[in-house]
Design goal:
By secondary structure, the chain is of the alpha/beta class. The chain folds into 2 domains: 7-137 and 242-353, Vaccinia Virus protein VP39 (Rossmann fold, 3-Layer(aba) Sandwich), CATH 3.40.50.150; 160-239, DNA polymerase, domain 1 (Orthogonal Bundle). 40% of the residues lie in helices and 11% in strands. It contains 16 helices and 6 strands. It has helices spanning 7-15, 43-50, 67-74, 86-91, 93-98, 113-118, 136-140, 165-169, 174-185, 190-200, 206-216, 228-239, 242-256, 270-283, 317-322, 346-353, and strands at 57-60, 78-83, 103-107, 125-131, 257-267, 330-335. It has a 6-stranded mixed β-sheet with strand order 3-2-1-4-5-6. Helix 3 links the parallel strand 1 (57-60) and strand 2 (78-83). Helix 13 (242-256) runs parallel beside helix 14. It is globular and about 55 Å long. The two termini are 18 Å apart. Residues 1-25 and 346-354 have low confidence and may be disordered.
């Protein structure tokens, strides 16, 4: 994936014409406070993309450990943050107290952010940020069952309710498991891994699952890259319905962003990034010619709901060295126009089936 000459400069060029009046953040912030527990990926670049003016209302749709929220507050925004994980909401109460009335935390799914805001009398906001996938806080807690490096219950549920990873793996058909591993984890040997999982059932611990995957893929002890990575990612995405949540979240953001409002999305998986890329391409009018998956339509063209997306941004070498989890991150951003939101999720669902 080719990088731009300067990710921050690229975003600045993309937003410069729509910033309007007010003291907005248009250069890379150098003095944003850092949380020792969680330094969010592309934090400064996200703040530049949001071009926050003091007093604006912004949404951190994936609160996690609050890294982006802290940066938004420091830039002068009022923040509404949500998370489906009750642990994140509980641990975020200290930041609510520090924010002096400028932070509201909501327990809920970001795919329903428009409803969550409407319930609080908010119909439009100036910016929305999504950080897609599992949080560092969730990975680092072995008891949550997300990590193949820490033994714990085979859970993986972000909301801590519904079917767990163990429940699904112990009942699912081998073919269904293979499909999930292939489509959500890019695991080329998905059938071999699925066969090994079924043969090893019942499974109840992350350590057991990791061992099964390593044996199935003939992973030599001490090899640099753990082959469990792709399968754990795929199972997590499936258990939490993350791709459906993303499609719903993008459509919800389109509905609640005011004209001139900014959308910033950080993703870590190629399928997630493709969904975001295709959504912004379509909604900005860049897909009028159709594609190999969807022929040109004779229906009247809809007005673009977003301006031309800014160039994608990837982490710097320095950030990758400081935080290895940043290596696969991609930031995409765009600015909302005054056109009414489109009905449905047309090209987003198409992206998921590619």
């Amino acid at each position: 994936m080719r990088r731009g000459r300067s990710g921050v400069a690229a975003i600045g060029r993309g937003l410069g014409r729509v910033q309007g009046e007010g003291a907005k953040v248009t250069e890379l912030p150098r003095d944003l406070p850092r949380d020792s527990r969680h330094d969010p990926v592309l934090r400064e670049e996200v703040i530049v993309a949001l071009a926050i003016a003091s007093g604006e209302r912004h949404v951190d749709a994936t609160f996690g450990a609050g890294g982006y929220t802290r940066a938004m507050l420091s830039a002068g925004a009022e923040v509404i943050a949500c998370d489906r994980d009750p642990d994140a909401i509980a641990e975020g109460q200290a930041l609510v107290a520090e924010a002096g009335g400028r932070l509201t935390l909501i327990h809920g799914r970001f795919g329903e952010i428009d409803r969550l805001l409407a319930e609080r009398g908010i119909d439009a906001v100036d910016g929305i940020t999504f950080d897609i996938g599992v949080s560092s806080m969730q990975i680092d807690q072995g008891a949550r069952g997300f990590s193949f490096q820490k033994d714990g219950p085979l859970d993986m549920r972000m909301a801590q309710e519904g079917e767990s990873a163990a429940d699904w793996l112990n009942r699912a058909d081998e073919a269904d498991i293979a499909d999930v591993l292939y489509h959500y984890g890019d695991e080329r040997q998905s059938r071999r891994v699925a066969r090994a999982i079924v043969a090893a059932r019942p499974l109840s611990r992350t350590g057991e699952l990791a061992t099964v995957i390593r044996k199935a893929l003939r992973h030599p002890p001490g090899a640099p890259k753990d082959p469990s990575t792709k399968s754990f990612q795929a199972i997590r995405i499936h258990i939490n319905g993350e791709l459906d949540e993303l499609t719903q979240g993008l459509a919800a953001a389109e509905r609640v962003l005011r004209p001139g409002g900014r959308l910033a999305v950080v993703s870590f998986h190629s399928t997630e990034d493709r969904i975001v890329k295709n959504f912004l391409r379509e909604r900005s009018g860049g897909d009028a010619g159709g594609s190999r998956h969807r022929p040109v339509s004779n229906a009247p063209a809809r007005a673009a709901t977003f301006g031309p997306p800014a160039r994608k941004v990837r982490p710097s070498k320095a950030e990758e060295a400081r935080n290895p989890r940043a290596r696969s991150a991609t930031l995409r951003s765009a600015v909302r126009t005054a056109a009414p939101a489109w009905p449905g999720h047309s090209i987003i669902k198409e992206s998921m089936s590619c």
